[in-house]
Amino acid sequence: MESVFLVIATLCYCIGTVGYLIYLLRDWTPIHWASWGILLGGALFHAAAILLRSMELHQLAVTSSQEALSFFALMLVTTYLVIQIRLQLRILGSFVAPLAVLFMFLSSLLPAHIIPKGGIFQSGWVIFHVTTLFFANALFALAFSAGVMYLLQERQIKRKNFGYLYERLPSLERLDKINYYCLTTGFPLMTAGLITGFAYASSSTVWRSPWSWDPKEIFALITWIIYAVSLHERLTVGWRGRKAAWMAILGFLAVLITFLGVNLFLKGHHTTFIR
Known about the structure:
Elements: H1 2-25, H2 29-57, H3 65-87, H4 93-109, H5 124-158, H6 164-168, H7 172-203, H8 215-237, H9 241-265, H10 269-273
Helix pairs in contact: 1-2, 1-4, 2-3, 3-4, 3-5, 5-7, 5-9, 7-8, 7-9, 8-9
């Protein structure tokens, strides 16, 4: 049944993406709300599929690269749906929905190997570790989207090319505020997720140490440093605008390398459990 739900969810994301791309071209509120509702429906079916899969495995269904990327797509859509209500940045859906579709299609191409039932993903600490990191990464994906929009808008302003896209994209100030909001919300979640992971590893019979020079640990730390630097420079030096947008893009590229590249191409403790 979960496979049927996943297909329905993917179709909803695809339809929602088409709707939001139409909204990007035409400022019509009913198109936005219809697309938002379709994404919500897709997220509900997606959540049901992951819940059924988790019940079948008796552990959180992120035990393969395929499941992890699917879970990431769900977190991305869910985070956008909530952020949209809070911040009222409708046009962001035109960039987020295609990302969700891309992640869903990529997940179908990745290996589906899972670890045996009764593994570490039954631990409450690991569940907290995983979900906080996924939510943080979803917020960083939104910051990435806002950063891309910022650079597009800035380029049009500098070239004095006030075309249709200029009228549809938010102001530079608002895009920068979205970037800052996602950073200040996502960074504490990422920090909490990493601390929880280190704490669990130190007491686990699998790792027995909070740090083991695992490739995923190294790249996760690099990603954390990128966002720590970005937040520090914003708060102390006053980084805004273009620099902040590029840091959001760089940070999310680091997230993708940590999330996908390490799992697929490097060997370590984490890739023993997630393939």
